[in-house]
Amino acid sequence: MSPTLRPSKIVCVGRNYAAHAAELGNDVPAEPILFLKPPSALIGPGEAIVLPPGAGRVDYEGEVGVLIGRRASRVREKEALDFVKGIVPVNDVTARELQRMDSQWTRAKGFDTFCPVGDPVPPEKVDLERLTVVTRLNGEERQRGRADQMVFSIPFLISFISHIMTLEPGDLVATGTPEGIGPLAEGDVVEVELPGLSSLVNPVLAGKES
Ligand code: MG
């Protein structure tokens, strides 16, 4: 597990870019779709994403992550950014066939190594209007999304989630992936970059049967 991050929970947002919802045949939701990844899925930069034997297709999902710095309960949208300690690149690795098979996504999203997270950038160094996430597979660009293309903005999401569950210092919010998701194979190298801010690179290994 990443030594720098010890979240009590990782809260993820589904279908937060219209073009990505469309590429998987989904509509944009009226309210944010939330799910959780377990902290045991965390890995840091340079650590390997392990493809679980028998899990079928496993996809990268490059995302903007938000690291919580102060306890946030029922916070208003306009004050939500006061509770942010850092912005991080996140890869919401997903076993796509298992996601389609199950009515909820705990298994598909929760395998060990399925939450690579990069080094945090202090929020005062980030222009949220221009914040961009780029995913490269073996050096080739596959995803590029801007925060201003999100269906639900980062402040809205923090406020929305904090009205359901208290966000604790160290918790992580993954804000959804833009279009261009695709499969990973053994030997791949996947990078999620917040250009000019932080880069997350992880190799991909095939797991062994046991
Ligand atoms: Mg995602």
Helix/strand-derived category reads: mainly beta
Tell me the β content: 25-35%
Order of helices and strands: EHEEEEEEEHHEEEHEEEE
- CA-atom Rg in angstroms: 16 Å
Kindly report the average pLDDT value. Answer: 95
What profile does the largest beta sheet have? Answer: 5 strands, mixed
The N- and C-terminal alpha carbons lie at a distance of 21 Å
Give the strand tally: 15
Name given to the CATH homologous superfamily: Fumarylacetoacetase-like, C-terminal domain
Task: Write down the overall geometry.
Answer: globular
Major beta sheet, strand line-up: 2-1-12-6-7
Give me the CATH fold name: Fumarylacetoacetate hydrolase, domain 2
Which cofactors or ions or other ligands sit in this model?
magnesium ion
Helical content band: 10-25%
Number of domain units: 1
The unreliable regions are none
The CATH class designation is: Alpha Beta
What's the architecture in CATH terms?
Answer: Alpha-Beta Complex
Count of discrete alpha- or pi-helical segments spanning 4 or more residues: 4
Question: Would you give an account of this structure?
Answer:
This protein is mainly β and 210 residues long. It has a single domain, classed as Fumarylacetoacetase-like, C-terminal domain (Fumarylacetoacetate hydrolase, domain 2, Alpha-Beta Complex). It is built from four helices and 15 strands. It has a five-stranded mixed sheet with strand order 2-1-12-6-7. A five-stranded mixed sheet has the order 4-15-14-10-11, with no helix packed on it. The chain has a three-stranded antiparallel sheet with strand order 8-5-13. A hairpin with a 2-residue loop joins strand 10 (132-137) and strand 11 (140-146). The longest helix is centred in the C-terminal third of the chain and has 9 residues, at 154-162. The radius of gyration is 16 Å and the shape is globular. The chain starts with 9 loop residues before the first strand and ends with a strand. The mean pLDDT is 95. Bound molecules: magnesium ion (MG). Magnesium ion binds next to loops.
